[in-house]
Amino acid sequence: PLDINAVARSIKPSATLAISARAGELRAAGRKVFNFSAGEPDFAPPAAVAASVTRRLADAPVGYAPVPGLPQLRDAAAAELSAYHGVEITRDQLIVSCGAKHSLANLFMVTLDPGDEVVIAAPYWVSYPEMVRLGGGTSKIVSCPRAQGFKLTPAQLREAVGPKTKYLLLNSPSNPTGVAYTTAELRALAEVLAERAPQTWILTDDIYRKLTYGQPSVSVVRALAGIPGIEDQIVIVDGVSKSHAMTGWRIGFLAAPVPVAKAVTAIQGQTTSGASTPAQWAALAAVTEASAKAEVEVMRERFTERRAAMIKGLRAAGAELVEPDGAFYVFPDFSALCGEGARFADDLALAGFLLEDKGLATVPGTAFGAPGHLRLSFACSMDDIEAGMELLRQALASSA
Ligand code: PLP
């Protein structure tokens, strides 16, 4: 047999994709399935995106893009990030990759040495620990339960950091909880890391930063300004996938110190080459066109209404939850229904019952390092949210 190597054998398949596949099978068999498991917007991208690509396709052949990205896109993304973060980010620091996921994987590949640790708060996005492992590092998972708003505390961070800590990974607003850190919370965490300067860095995954429903997102760079030892030690991952409904275009951005950006360029040069050229044109339109910004705002307003409906429906179904500040997920706590003597053995059994018996696709919290919870996405129609939440209420009310 053609053997699979040890690293690949250690990688867990994505739980999210497994649920989607099962939901697809049920649908193909003629069942109505409410899909609350999606990790992507259900909107079309801004009109300027497709228009720009169509125009350019007619004008010129689609050649290779430069490995670190089209200069215009690097400049535009760097300018946008500079404005948001209030510091100058130059083209040399900005690398375009095939999605934020690729940006993260590249960063881990070029900066982690065996034994290096990445502190990750649980609940966490499913791919983080797997990507850290692929990069040769070790994840230090810190459990942050609902009672503390799913957020890492300075005391927990102090406990978790050590001589091997390379990064604190932040994802605010978060997948799967939607919670976002305030300036005061970020500064309190950074004070702990500053004690470990210069070896420890912050990696901020800002993929959901434009999707917030109360206060706008806090720039980690702005929040930490003036804290010596950490204010200059921030690596940023950003992109257009979630904010601009462009998941399938596969464009992400990394803003890092120039030597890191060069190392990532070398890796991309020997693996993927530059990201897809038409997708980079598309991202350029997304980042620069005023009409695209306006359309993103419309999507955000639609998400705002859906968020409210889902929170209401989940509460009516008896769920305990922390209201999400951003992204498009709610992460209700169903631990009262799970465990010994309870109706379900665990969240996997609960999610299985909801999908198989009721046609409600959710993702079990275990996948995010938080058993007893489910992740529900409100990136679906209002009708589905209303009907689906009523079904959930009935399913959990009946003792069957
Ligand atoms: N970061 C987080 C927290 C995510 O939830 C996702 C997508 O699910 C990504 C990054 C990946 O983004 P992209 O599609 O740009 O690779």
TrEMBL record:
Claim: Transferase is one of the keywords in the record: yes
Source organism superkingdom: Bacteria
Q: Which InterPro entries match?
A: Aminotransferase_I/II_large, AspAT/PAT-like, NHTrfase_class1_PyrdxlP-BS, PyrdxlP-dep_Trfase, PyrdxlP-dep_Trfase_major, PyrdxlP-dep_Trfase_small
Q: Name one Pfam family in it.
A: Aminotran_1_2
- Do you know which CDD domains this protein is assigned to? AAT_like (cd00609)
* Cofactor requirements of the protein: pyridoxal 5'-phosphate
Question: Sorted alphabetically, which PROSITE patterns does this protein's record hold?
Answer: AA_TRANSFER_CLASS_1
Keywords of the record, alphabetical order, are: Aminotransferase, Pyridoxal phosphate, Transferase
Enzyme Commission number(s) from the entry: 2.6.1.-
The molecular function terms of the Gene Ontology recorded here are: pyridoxal phosphate binding; transaminase activity
Specify the Aminotransferase class I/classII large domain's residue ranges. Answer: 32-387
Q: Can you cite a GO biological process for this protein?
A: amino acid metabolic process
Tell me which family the UniProt entry assigns to this protein.
Belongs to the class-I pyridoxal-phosphate-dependent aminotransferase family.
Question: Which protein are we looking at?
Answer: Aminotransferase
Organism equals Enhygromyxa salina
Species lineage: Bacteria, Pseudomonadati, Myxococcota, Polyangia, Nannocystales
